[in-house]
Amino acid sequence: MDPIIFTPRLKLTLVTKAERGSPELEWLHELHSNEKATWWSIYGQAKSIEDTEKVMKGYLPTNEGAENTYRVAYAVHKVLESMSGSVEGEPRPAEQGKKTTEFIGLVTLISLDAGSLALPKDFTLPTAAATTTLTVELAYMFLPIGWGKGYATESVEAAFESCKRARSFWTPFTKLCIRAIVNEDNPASLRVMDKTGMTKSGVYDWTGKAIFLAGEWQERSSLHIFGMHLLK
Fold it and tell me: I want to staple 32 with a disulfide (CB 3.0 to 4.6 A). Which of 52, 194, 203, 230 is the partner?
């Protein structure tokens, strides 16, 4: 996967680890400890560094567990004025000592595992396709400073393009399917799905053990299921 991606307005940095004292952990904790950013996260708002470390273990690369586990996490920064006007994707040097980017969010792609939400067969690939097609789940979170500006769409599209360029990363799979699950009461993310070309498979009415989501305990939700065959 591309270690760094520039778009017209953003810089995406591939995060493979986030150790104590690192800027990566600082970014992720800022995100996970923000109440509004985590409004639609089933993991809730982090109250401590330890909480953030526990959550990020679910999406950062690991050597533990199953062999064919694929995880991609991109930290998203807004490129400030001093770096704008780049040529062919290369950032322009900033003035000395001037901040060039501002952290605004995170995009992750994670292969399905035992912890993923089990969906009815209507929403999953046929068993026969599983030998050649890998399904990964898309998720993203943004700080309020990054809302309403199209940054989620721009960063998701950039991550998708990186996935296409990195065919060898997905070995031994030759095909890649993206799935995303969006709560019916989250219209902003529903718009992102539409803008990024994701296809709606249907609506799954989930019921289960109560989880704290969007400011209240919920035992049922209408979940919109989206998919896309990124590598065919």
Answer: 52
